[in-house]
Backbone:
């Protein structure tokens, strides 16, 4: 008859105490457990793979442009005539309507109003949108983590000041703040001492979006740090004479890791969406550089006659954001902080 | 006693409320029995609504029916709309002193839209205000009116060349030299009367009172404004300037497809004549609404300015190169076929438009590979290959598309190009700031009056000014200056006899490639089913004539 599990664990515990030098079986860390849970979430993995596929496609934009389409993203072939299937088609017609998908290597998804290859611009636009999203996420996570941790740990006037800063940024609608900053930096760029951003640089919208989302991460992190600083292990660290920086970096930050990991895909998705919105409104990526937002904006006035101009970048945007969002949900579920560490047999 | 007092107070309050309700109801009834409202959409907001500031068609369209000067333009279609008629003046000016002195008499009993009486002395104040506010065309005043330049420089407190007598209602203007188009200058909305004492600051958000069928009210900057009927105009009704019949609700709608759809579906009544019909809907309009659609040729050019005072466009070889490399057919397609390819600064329909072939190739044909190679070699010869160039543009379609294409051509020619796109309402004030020293970018010009001198304002060195500059290329050519001085003196009635002189000048300008002209525009005349299409007047100078708008029966 098998020994009941609880009794077996008790016996093991007794044995461990009586034989302290005995080798303990390996435990399963929280991240391994999380990975196991994530592996079983097939939906999250599928959408994560979708997002990864989009990223890879966009990274391969120069290859597609050079070897398949044989045209760059900014090359305008307005008066060129295509010959497929014995039919001659204007890339851009006399009334300004561009050709639709040819399903051939050139103009696979059609042309835009300026005679540019839509597929090439879609991939290069994706690179820009994803790059801006990634840089913005990095800025947000670093600044929010630092500011949130400092605010939550020190409390008092420091916390007061930083919290007011968060609230000020939070109160201003993200899109309006982004537009205001984007438009004002369009002509002269941004110059803060050694730090200079040229007007029209992709980093301008990245910095703007990164700053706008600081409170969205900074406030929850601050709240978590406020709770953590009251824990015994922090007291113990103080008793050992560790300074505030070492405590924040060595003790508090590791406990924030799962929170940070959960926020990354969420902020990335929102950053990509905000970039698209800013670019659509003319305050983000500047012409002639493509982005999914600018492509949608360019195609809006021709929806009745050339719907592919808005549909194609719109679908890519939806798939990318959906992919990272669903994957992010899976990561969050996998990193549920209520999970217990169990000793293995 | 207290209780009784409370009762009486309550009764009095109820009576007051009741009276207010009745009065409001009556006013409401009167308002609802007032003129109907039509909606006009604009793809871009006016640069200004202040008459002594506005210098875009959007601003001028509202101002020319709200502010009348000594003279005005006939409210008629086509070329007839370019004829000058008396506005606040009783008749044609008495011109003496070899064409240098103009004497006019103000009509009697005129009132501004706020009920204040119009005085002859208000004219001088209005001109001083236009100069003080740096109106984009103020060189028309400072170059011709005695004392205007001294006033603009601050060395005089009034313009000595303008004298007026409120008692006799006479106004006398003395010019430095004869100027054949001076009556046209007096017909500008900027030359219109505003009351003496009107603040010398931009009043676009609360436009000053004026004399005209309309008054501009309810301004929400960059969003909307209302053309309300001027209650004091009906009585004075100047001959040739009809009374308004509708209230105009003007709104900004930056999407031309939405504009077109709204008019097609009768959600809006009209849109700005400067906006193009969305190409996607053109076929549908021609099929479903042919009776309320047509295109009107207008005297307007489209060009890219080339700053002749800064590299690389200070070199003629570079200017020639970019001029020959541009494919004007491509630009026409970007405009949905509404652009007529061309190369001369004076558009088709303007006296003096040259008939000779273009100096750098036929604008109707696309440049060949050999032409592009030649262009590259010219740039290399000038030593400007790889030079940094910033191309400026506004966001409105198809202007941004024009500039994007132009930037791609410059890139192909070997320049290091940056494209900067600005919000429409701030575009011209920004590139017109001299300190920016903008190298090249989009520009266009619609005639202010049917005289080539109007277009040559943009090439006149005297019109270069620190703000609101319109000579974006900063052209300073002695040959052009001498020609302008000579030809501007010719009276309007003798213009046709000197067409050959203007043609020769314009051909010279094209050869020097100071501006890269690529075509001439047509305007759509497209309205909702509510509007009486036949009665509608489109001024080729200022766009819709609001006082011709009436509802269809």
Residues:
């Amino acid at each position: 008859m098998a020994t009941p599990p609880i009794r077996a664990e008790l016996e093991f515990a007794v044995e461990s105490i009586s034989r302290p030098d005995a080798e303990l079986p390996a435990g399963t860390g929280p991240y391994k457990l999380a990975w196991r849970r994530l592996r079983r979430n097939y939906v999250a993995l599928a959408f994560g793979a979708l997002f990864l596929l989009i990223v890879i496609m966009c990274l391969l934009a120069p290859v597609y442009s050079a070897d398949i389409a044989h045209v760059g993203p900014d090359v305008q072939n307005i008066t060129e005539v295509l010959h497929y299937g014995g039919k001659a088609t204007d890339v851009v017609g006399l009334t300004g309507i561009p050709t639709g998908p040819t399903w051939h290597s050139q103009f696979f998804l059609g042309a835009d109003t300026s005679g540019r290859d839509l597929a090439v611009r879609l991939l290069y636009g994706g690179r820009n949108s994803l790059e801006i999203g990634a840089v913005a996420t990095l800025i947000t996570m670093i600044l929010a983590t630092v500011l949130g941790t400092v605010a939550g740990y020190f409390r008092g006037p420091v916390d007061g000041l930083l919290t007011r800063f968060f609230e000020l940024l939070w109160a201003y609608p993200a899109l309006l703040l982004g537009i205001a900053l984007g438009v004002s930096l369009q002509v002269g760029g941004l110059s803060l001492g050694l730090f200079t951003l040229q007007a029209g640089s992709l980093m301008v919208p990245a910095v703007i979006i990164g700053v706008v989302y600081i409170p969205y991460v900074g406030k929850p992190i601050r709240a978590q740090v406020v709770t953590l600083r009251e824990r015994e292990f922090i007291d113990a660290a103080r008793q050992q004479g560790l300074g505030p920086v070492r405590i924040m970096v060595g003790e508090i930050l590791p406990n924030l890791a799962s929170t940070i990991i959960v926020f990354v895909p969420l902020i990335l998705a929102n950053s990509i969406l905000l970039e698209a919105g800013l670019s659509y409104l003319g305050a983000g990526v500047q012409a002639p550089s493509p982005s999914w937002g600018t492509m949608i904006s360019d195609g809006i006035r021709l929806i009745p006659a050339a719907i592919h101009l808005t549909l194609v970048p719109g679908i890519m945007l939806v798939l990318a954001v959906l992919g990272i969002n669903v994957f992010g949900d899976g990561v969050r579920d996998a990193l549920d902080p209520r999970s217990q560490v169990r000793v293995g047999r | 006693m207290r209780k009784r007092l409370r009762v009486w107070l309550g009764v009095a309050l109820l009576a007051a409320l009741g009276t207010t309700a009745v009065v409001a109801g009556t006013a409401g009834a009167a308002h609802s029995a007032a003129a109907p409202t039509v909606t006009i959409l604009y793809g871009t907001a006016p640069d200004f609504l202040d008459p002594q500031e506005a210098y875009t068609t959007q601003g001028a369209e509202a101002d020319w029916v709200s502010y009348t000067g000594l003279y005005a333009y006939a409210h008629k279609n086509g070329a007839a709309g370019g004829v000058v008629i008396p506005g606040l003046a009783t008749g044609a000016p008495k011109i003496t002193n070899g064409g240098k002195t103009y004497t006019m008499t103000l009509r009697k009993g005129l009132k501004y839209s706020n009920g204040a009486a119009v005085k002859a002395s208000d004219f001088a104040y209005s001109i001083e205000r236009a100069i003080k506010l740096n109106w984009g065309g103020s060189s028309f005043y400072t170059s011709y009116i005695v004392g205007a330049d001294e006033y603009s420089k601050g060395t005089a407190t009034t313009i000595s060349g303008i004298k007026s007598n409120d008692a006799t209602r006479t106004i006398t203007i003395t010019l430095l030299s004869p100027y054949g188009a001076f009556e046209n200058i007096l017909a500008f909305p900027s030359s219109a009367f505003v009351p003496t004492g009107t603040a010398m600051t931009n009043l676009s958000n609360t436009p000053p009172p004026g004399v005209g069928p309309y008054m501009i009210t309810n301004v929400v900057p960059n969003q909307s404004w209302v053309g309300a009927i001027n209650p004091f105009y009906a009585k004075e009704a100047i001959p040739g300037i009809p009374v308004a019949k509708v209230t105009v609700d003007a709104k900004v709608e930056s999407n031309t497809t939405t504009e077109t759809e709204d008019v097609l579906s009768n959600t809006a009544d009209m849109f700005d004549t400067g906006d193009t019909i969305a190409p996607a809907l053109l076929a549908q309009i021609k099929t479903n609404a042919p009776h309320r659609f047509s295109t009107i040729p207008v005297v307007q050019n489209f060009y890219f300015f080339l700053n002749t005072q800064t590299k690389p466009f200070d070199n003629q070889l570079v200017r020639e190169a970019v001029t020959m490399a541009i494919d004007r057919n491509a630009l026409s397609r970007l405009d949905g076929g509404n652009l007529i390819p061309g190369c001369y600064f004076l558009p088709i329909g303007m006296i003096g438009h040259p008939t000779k072939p273009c100096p750098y190739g036929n604008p109707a044909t696309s440049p060949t590979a050999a032409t592009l190679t030649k262009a590259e070699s010219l740039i290399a010869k000038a030593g400007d290959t790889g030079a940094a160039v910033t191309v400026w543009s506004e966001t409105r379609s198809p202007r941004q598309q024009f500039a994007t294409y132009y930037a791609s051509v410059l890139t192909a020619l070997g320049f290091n190009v940056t494209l900067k796109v600005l919000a429409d309402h701030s575009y011209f004030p920004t590139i017109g700031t001299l300190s920016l020293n903008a190298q090249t970018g989009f520009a266009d010009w619609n005639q202010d009056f049917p005289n080539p001198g109007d277009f040559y304002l943009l090439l006149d060195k005297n019109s270069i000014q620190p703000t609101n500059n319109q000579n974006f290329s900063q052209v300073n050519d002695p040959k052009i200056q001498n020609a302008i001085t000579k030809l501007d003196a010719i009276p309007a009635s003798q213009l046709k006899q000197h067409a050959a002189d203007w043609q020769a000048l314009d051909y010279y300008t094209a050869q020097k490639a100071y501006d890269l002209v690529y075509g001439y525009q047509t305007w759509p005349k497209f309205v909702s089913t509510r509007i009486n299409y036949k009665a509608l007047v489109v001024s080729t100078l200022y766009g819709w004539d609001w006082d011709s708008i009436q509802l269809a029966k």
Remarks:
- The longest strand of chain B covers residues 293-306.
- The mean pLDDT of chain B is 91.
- Chain B has two domains: 40-250+527-548, 298-523.
